[in-house]
Amino acid sequence: MAEKRKLGPADKRRQVKRCSACSARKIKCEGGFPCKYCIKTGKSCLPPKQSTGTVLFVEGHTSGETKLQTALSRPKLNIVSGIPTNGDPAERFIGCFLLFIQQNRFTASFQSLDTEILYLVRTSPLLYHSAVAIGALDASRRGSISVSKGRESPQYVAFSSYRASIRVLQASVSEKDAAQRDDVLWGTFFLGLFELLTDPSGDGWVKHILHGTSMILRLSSPDKNMSSLRRTFYGIFRMLEASRALLYNEATILAEDSWVNFHKQLAPNDGIWDPIEEILALMIRCATFNLRGYEIVSQIPELQRYTDPAVSALGFEGLAIQNDLYAWHAQALLLLGDNTSDSSPLLLALAYYNALLIFLSGNFDYFPYWAPPNAPILPKSEVAAHVAAILQLTDAALNTSRLAGALMFFPLRVAGSRAGGKEQRGAILGMLSRVAQRGFVVAGKIRDDLQEVWVERGMISDGEDCTLQIS
Fold first, then answer.
1. Where are the domains of the chain?
2. Element of type H or E holding 182
3. Phi, psi of 430 (to 5 degrees)
4. Whether the predicted model's global pTM rises above the 0.85 cut
5. Of 142, 157, 91, whose CA–CA distance to 118 is shortest?
6. Where are the alpha helices (DSSP H) in 249-343?
7. CB-based contacts of 443-448 (< 8 A; 24+ apart in sequence)
8. Which helix (H) or strand (E) holds 71?
9. Residues 395-453: pLDDT tens digits?
10. Cα separation of 365 and 310, whole Å?
């Protein structure tokens, strides 16, 4: 008997596979993901076990005969490179999700994840729901998808998909292999990203990073043979976590010896100096030093702090970090004339450098126990110059790159704490507004923190308008 002809890319018939729940009950599945039956019954809509497809690479010629056929055994992918104009609304939100990723780079490689991420999206309910949530949320804000009468609004889809992904995550983390699953790791990131886009307080993002992503990374333990997806994820996590530790004055998993040693093992042996990786290491070092210094000083009686050798030692340790920052800057300046690569990561790294110098100085210049030259305290003129540099670099990064706005929070928060006048405060609020316009509403939290600082220091009156322009 002849083999039944398989559906091909030009075949107009619809291919529907039953989900696991419908297959188990031996009932017709309407298709979609999740299907109507699983939505109605509240079941987790899992795809059927994936069969291995065969991709044929064929070199043909005029006679129609095949000269070369190479069969590669790998799962078939359904790639969306833009927003579909019709069909399943969920597919359109997946398209919006991909466009959002392309327009918000967290690392240099983050924009090239379409194929790998989409494969996980197609096979993992957790990533499917979280991707739809982000895509629908972005679509609701941009008005990029019209809604016909009787259909749920993109905003409703966003939050219902978010709740569905939370339920799947809660079920997934109880499984034995949860820490080794790429979809669970990426799921914590996308859920945290959704919080950055919806929760102005930033508390939800911190919760996912601290109690989700960090916990799973710690359970899985460092492994230099990790998958490419997990390695890319680690790079993104490192970017966000270094800023979070500084912004929230909290400990980070990245400062633990096992992860510090692991990162050294990942470093390529090509001798190429990476300004982003080096400045992130300095950010993690500054965050850890800040916490340890506070713990040491708080255990020493107030009057003894002026003469205690442990307090003096902190000043000299701060100077060593400052010297390493200056050495980083000297190396980074050599790259400014390189026009062969994307300059936006270097702009961001330079903004971080200026912010770190101010942050480090702030650990000492607010207290009377230290004085230059025995501590890394900057004169006011240098602080003002670093603030101006942060504003210039951040503005350039926002104008000329697709870097995610969330990456700008640390330098803008530091610059805001030392802003020199109404013009600089206005510039900072303007940039926070642009970050918020890109979807990261947690910019409002940075604004609120700065407003408190400005009022406390008498820089503005309590009623001065610090509203972010988000429309």
1. 89-261, 267-456
2. helix 182-198
3. -65, -40
4. no
5. 91
6. 257-266, 275-298, 309-333
7. 443/405, 443/409, 443/468, 444/200, 444/468, 445/200, 445/201, 445/202, 446/409, 446/412, 446/413, 446/416
8. strand 66-73
9. 999 998 889 999 999 999 999 999 988 999 999 999 999 999 888 988 988 999 999 99
10. 17
